Amino acid sequence: MTGVFVADVQLRWTDLDAQGHVNNVMVADYLQQARAEFMLSGDAGEMIEDGLVVVAHQISYRNPIHYSDDPLRAELWVAEVGAARLVIAYRLIQDDSLCVEARTVLCPYDFERMVPRRLTRRERGFFTAWLDENTAPLPELVARELAGRGKITPVQVRWSDPDRYQHVNNVRYLDYVLAGRVDMTSHADPSMARVAMGNADAARWLIARQDIDYLVQMMFRLEPFHVLTAPVHLGTSSIVLATEIVDPDDGIVHAKARTVLVCADEAGHKRPLPDAARAALEKLLTTQ
After folding, report:
1. CA–CA–CA angle 258, 152, 236 (5° rounding)
2. Dist CA 87 CA 55 (whole Å)
């Protein structure tokens, strides 16, 4: 391994959420930006031009990212190289603090024939040069199948959501997951709907982990897709939510996501789930 590739990712004011730090969805955008710079720096640049699909993300949020004029430091390297599959590992660092650790599974793809393809010798050589076979995998976040269960949130694909391959960009899927999560939790317990600014006793809801598997490509259309969301585990201070993005016309599941939502106090420290939220979510818990 030659070391880690470093990309400086510029922050934008629009990246911030209601709590004043970078929204969890934007982290996937930062990973994508750093990944593109990495691949365009060497013999994998043509792969971006010809076809590449994201198969899965694992994102572990360690510390909040705050707005700064200074760019975010993105470090990345290759964790695995297979015949037609590779895994990119990342660290996002701000002010010497580890904010995010993540993994992305990628697959080269032939969009003319609509099939995966094998890595070329040139591509394999590029990725192998950045390979660290000792990279520890992130713990797997497992959630049961929803099989049509959960709160349904209709989500419209925007004209700007598709990327250069004319399918919905991987980052936008997490927008849809976010919409479903906010809709489900706020309907379960209205106190979870937003940050109670200025109220020191109010619970804050932080994303600690988010994984997503991309199963079927989504295209732009006027008819909304359905985002199904349900709690599948309640801990002392955390909730595991399962999400499925489904075409209501044929039942095809386009993506499956798992999210760990943590209850915190104003200082960002874990606190027990409020009684009202726990009672409401227990009624919606999907256990089988």
Report:
1. 45
2. 10
Residue 185 CA, distance from chain mean position: 18
With beta carbons less than 8 A apart as the criterion, state whether 258 and 122 touch: no
SS3 state at 184: helix
| Whole-number Å distance between alpha carbons of 54 and 32 | 10
Q: What is the rounded CA–CA span in Å between residue 239 and residue 231? A: 7
Distance in angstroms (rounded) separating the CA atoms of residues 185 and 192: 6
Distance CA 153, CA 221 (A): 16
| pLDDT on residue 287 | 75
C-alpha dihedral, 149 to 153 to 154 to 158, nearest 10°? -130
The count of other CB atoms within 10 Å of the CB of residue 57 is 24
Q: What percent of the chain has pLDDT over 70?
A: 96
Return d(Cα 41, Cα 44) in angstroms, integer.
Answer: 8
Residue 1: pLDDT band (50, 70, 90) is: low
Place of tokens 């590739």: 5
> What is the three-class DSSP state of 67?
coil
Please give the helix or strand (H or E) that residue 218 lies within, else none: none
Rounded distance between C-alpha atoms, residue 162 and residue 151, angstroms:
25
pLDDT in tens, 136-163: 999 999 888 899 999 999 999 999 999 8
Q: What letters, b where the CB count within 10 A reaches 16 and e where it falls short, cover 20-47?
A: ebbbbbbbbbbbbbbbebbbeeebbeeb
Digit-coded pLDDT (tens) for 11-31: 999 999 988 889 999 999 999
User: What pairing do the DSSP bridges indicate for beta strands 86-94 and 72-81?
Assistant: antiparallel
